[in-house]
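Issue 218. Parser rejects a valid record. Input:
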Amino acid sequence: MNRLLYYIMFIWMYMHALLPFSVLYVFSDILYFFVYKIAGYRLKVVRKNLEASFPDKTEKERRKIEREFYHHFCDYFVETLKLLHISDKEMQKRMQFENVEQIKELMKDGNSVLMFLGHYCNWEWIPSITLNFKGENKILGEIYKPLKNKAMDDLFLRIRSRFGSLAISKQDTLRAIVKLRNEGKQTLIGFMADQTPAWRNIHYWTPFLNQETPVFTGVERIAKQTGFAVIYLDMEKWKRGHYKATVRLITDKPKDEPENSITETYIRAMEKTILRNPAYWLWTHKRWKRTREQVEAMQQNK
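Output the parser choked on:
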């Protein structure tokens, strides 16, 4: 049944991927009407998040962000489908990377790099950064959380590996990174670190978008253990279907950094990116579903 579902979904998605962007964006506009106007997909969550994050904005201003978010969210969906049928040339035209030379400089002595990302703009297009390393024998790895449905998990792995990236299951992160290092392979590993950690893994809180927020510290711990340099990928959407991602160095000497400083630098950078244009962040996620008091009580009773 899983294989049957996989092929049915693949054929359906591939047929859509054959369509030009102009047609896909018509579908996106129609989808927006149903997702936002009819179904109100996670609308209560979005409004709660926006109200808590921007208490100084008027209701009218928050509604404007809300509408723009749902428009972009539907664009994100059809753009992700397009990954099944898009040329390298068109991908490079639509997803541009700036300051990639910084990564190459960091890796010139055999070092590897950890890359902080966020659920901002279209993060599914980020693996196309491999097009900037053709013939250089470097591995792009992306950490992902496996989906419960095997067919859908296989399908999204196929989409995400379109440009040759290596998908690393979340629970295998450290083991896989150490294995690659021991094999002498240079890697650029991307981490989506702007969402809620499992309550067992919450060790650090910081203000983020006007709220006390638990954040991942795992990337920092891996950086300190391996000595890998750390960068942040700052994304922008400059028009529909066109993005720019700028490489920004966080540190090339993680072992010398004070505790939590790498994590804090990322959070501040991510916040700045979101504030520049809030509509392009993933507001449907229940980012602040637990308070510090709730988490501490759960940790004491585990």
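Fixed in the parser; the record now loads. The beta strands are 95-98, 113-117, 139-144, 166-169, 187-192, 205-208, 211-214, 229-239, 242-251.
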